[in-house]
Amino acid sequence: xxAAIMYGAGDVRVADVPDARITAPxxxxxxxxxxxxxxxxxxxxxxxxxxxxxxxxxxxxxGVVEEVGADVTAVRPGEVVLAPFRWSDGTCEFCxxxxxxxxxxxxxxxxxxxxxxxxxxxxxxxDGTLVPVPVEPGDPRLVPVLALADVLCTGHHAARAARVGxxxxxxxxxxxxxxxxxxxxxxxxxxxxxxxxGAHENRLELARRFGATEVLEARGDAAARRLLELSDGRGYHxxxxxxxxxxALRTALDAARPGGAVGYVGVPQDGTGxxxxxxxxxxxxxxxxVAPARAYIPQLLPDVLSGGIDPSPIFDRVVALDDLSEGYAxxxxxxxxxxxxxxxx
Length: 345
Prior knowledge:
By secondary structure, the protein is of the alpha/beta class. Helices cover 30% and strands 26% of the residues. Strands 3, 5, 6, 9, 10, 17 and 18 form a seven-stranded mixed beta sheet that branches. It has a six-stranded parallel beta sheet with strand order 13-12-11-14-15-16, with helices on both faces. It has a three-stranded antiparallel beta sheet with strand order 2-1-4, covered by helices on one side. It starts with a strand and ends with a strand. 51% of the residues are buried. The mean pLDDT is 96.
């Protein structure tokens, strides 16, 4: 079968690899229909040291079940299923507590194993991982459903961690796919005012379409000052940090009002931390981390299927699997927000 392998910074190739196959009774074999390129994939694309062996890529995918192991009961061949960005057993103490990303037996796609940017994937612990989607393989709703594999749930996690609710004032730091999905999440949860901080006019315009009431082109200290000005010096009830740098996190903390909260979901990309003394006296809560997507998908899927939430505009570049390298390059050049890999082509 064909699958994407990264051999170093800027070097993604689609090559022949061993066919995915069931190796345990709890496995399912999924033929991939759609896959996505994540912003976190770009960090590797920019920084990975050269490797002769390479790394299998992709952690956002959905597809059709081709075969199941003897112990699998939750999905059956022929069903369309969505895979969250980590697999989990659904039964350990962390899964039961709503934190499947910390599953005792879980793991991640790609690396030395099957990645979602390929023709098929062996899914371990299929009963605890896969979510059946009641649609046919050609249904156009599969595109917004794919966003639930990672970015839509991650934006939702930021909003939940920052305690967004009816009437809240919300600032979103970042205009990438996660930041835009955080706007959808904040709007869904009833936020009264949503201000988005970014640097790309087309993305900020999409943020308005998603529910932002105002947008701000600024960074760092200038962004924090403007956010305070826009909130009459009080700060925001909730600030959603969706970038993953120390600068973005400091901006978020500076923009939170006394008693407010920061939800951070940007994958940390530098060692620059924050000084807790800068927000200690304001009683600002800092919460977040990796999104427990498998726990959120059942909550959000009905709204996506009904059209109540439509994140599909974030997929503004569509490529076939063999053209995946150009999809990565387009995102790296900021010419695309998020690349969709359509394996039905």
